[in-house]
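Our preliminary data section would be incomplete without showing what the modeling component actually yields. Below, a chain of 152 amino acids is followed by its predicted structure, encoded as tokens that our downstream tools consume directly.
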Amino acid sequence: MKTKLAAKIVAHFSAKKWRLAAVESITGGRISAKITAVPGASKIFFAGGVFYDSAAKRQFLKINFQKVFSRETAEKMAKSFREITAADFAVATTGRAENGKKTFFAVATATKVFSTEKIFFGNREKIQNAAANFALEFLEKIISTTILKSPF
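Predicted structure:
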């Protein structure tokens, strides 16, 4: 199912000639991997980056917050990476891959940033995979309900 969602995103972005960037922390490159596994992804996927350490977030994305695991951080990550890459959309994740801890998500466009949070349960790998899947679902939801105001 999640592979179908990535394929749907790639097809839709391709039709609109949109470019996507992914800036990841907790997901460790899984969003980028899911998108680039789809044939034709090179037409829409501009860049992906994993900024796992807080120092990397500060140095490259200009995150100046004390609390790097927050909705505010996810928003700044998405906004900064979208500006750096000049992609049409950037999706961001940050949080702790620990049972019952919050994960934060953001999607940035040239004019707006959307964000949410979710708690996942399970081991580290299960949480990271669930967070990557949720990030794609959130991206699709933002595009269909807010940008296009209709489902793909």
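The CA atoms of residues 75 and 128 lie 19 Å apart. The chain has a mean pLDDT of 93. Preliminary results of this kind motivate Aim 1 of the renewal.
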